[in-house]
Design brief:
Layout lengths: L3 H15 L3 H11 L4 H16 L1 H9 L11 H16 L5 H14 L6 H14 L9 H8 L4 H23 L5 E5 L6 H10 L4 E3 L5 E4 L9 H4 L3 E3 L2 H8 L8 E4 L6 H9 L5 E6 L2 H14 L4 E5 L12 E7 L25 H14 L1 E11 L8 H10 L3 E3 L3 H5 L6 E3 L9 E8 L1
Helix pairs in contact: 1-2, 1-3, 1-5, 2-3, 3-5, 4-5, 5-6, 5-7, 6-7, 8-9, 12-13
Amino acid sequence: METARSLAVQTLMKAERDASFSNLSLANALSRSQLSGPERALASQLVYGVTERRLTLDDQLARYLQKPPTKLHPQVLAVLRVGAYQLLFMEKIPVSAAVNESVKLVKAAGQGYAAGLVNAVLRKIAANGLVLPDPADKIQFFSIKYSCPPALTSFFVRVFGEADAEKILAVSVAPRPIFLRVNTCRTDREALIGRLEAEGVQAAPCALPDAVALDRPGDLRRLPSFAEGLFHVQDLSSQQTVRLLGLRPGQTVADLCAAPGGKAFTAAEYLRGEGRVYACDVYEHKCELIRSGAERLGLPNVQPLLCDAREICRHLKEADAVLCDVPCSGLGVIGRKPEIKYKSLDALASLPPLQYEILWAGAEIVRPGGTLVYSTCTLNPAENGDMCDRFLREHPDFTLASDAEYRAVCTGDYMTVLPTPDGGDGFFAAKFMRK
């Protein structure tokens, strides 16, 4: 019989085998599952928690194994990770339940030979708790405490210093709110909060206008208010990026890397149903995702545009505002997508050339006097400030925006935001005006 723990083990194995994001593997598994609400919630917590804390868990397991954890059978390793996560990070799970259910799982999976090993290792972890390295070695200490590879930990320390690096890492493994953007073409924030609470979801207003914060809301797609298009899920950082465009009804807007559509939807809401938002993506299925989202929200002025962002001038000659929220390394969203932090940093070098091509192409279609916003959800200077400095050197017809709202949120010339426990993800944005 399927349980929350067995579903979690199978999902984690599949995600690691396929090198896919755990949230996608989990969504597929839950869609086929007959688990009850509480069991589904437990399965989700186990999958996300083990993915987030994988490096820490493997370090703890290695202390009681005679060979590296990765040398174990994948099924045995997944069971040990799930068991260790319950013991170390879930206070409400009894030790007996975490250990005994783990032993049952390896037996049910045909790995009965490992039952004794699983039992012994998990009982040692339960007895000793979380064992951390010497704090004098900051990189190793941060790496194990916050489950972040040493190379990425060193990168954060080098760029931001020890104090801010630890804040970034601490937030990456802490619970975070889910943020919504109110569909202002259909309702307002006060009315939406009342509606969500009537549907059993606790909601609170944010400092950013038309933004709402939710704490562990469950599957939002089941809500009538979702079906009625009263909101879409969008992080505060993404909402802030669109806000920088300073949009007015009737304008033409191009969102060059639009999928899944959140920024385009917010832009359309600022336009009050007037003007046009061209939501570009290179993949047809993603354009369809944007189209269906716009239909749910009742935003007919969102027009999906199937094209490579680097060739936007073939499809659109001029726009009042252009948003280049480019593909990036995602180092600002490791708290939402923990798989990112386990990837090699070698990939960072391949991104700036593509990002600059997209920024260059976006600049080509900005009308004189128009606005260009470049943004990422990463904290890598080579993808952020360095990119924008080069752009200004090579585009004398553009200048940094000087409006009070933009300057108020900048540190220096650009806007860099670090993730916070109750705020948005880490991100970067720069606002340019065409002379």
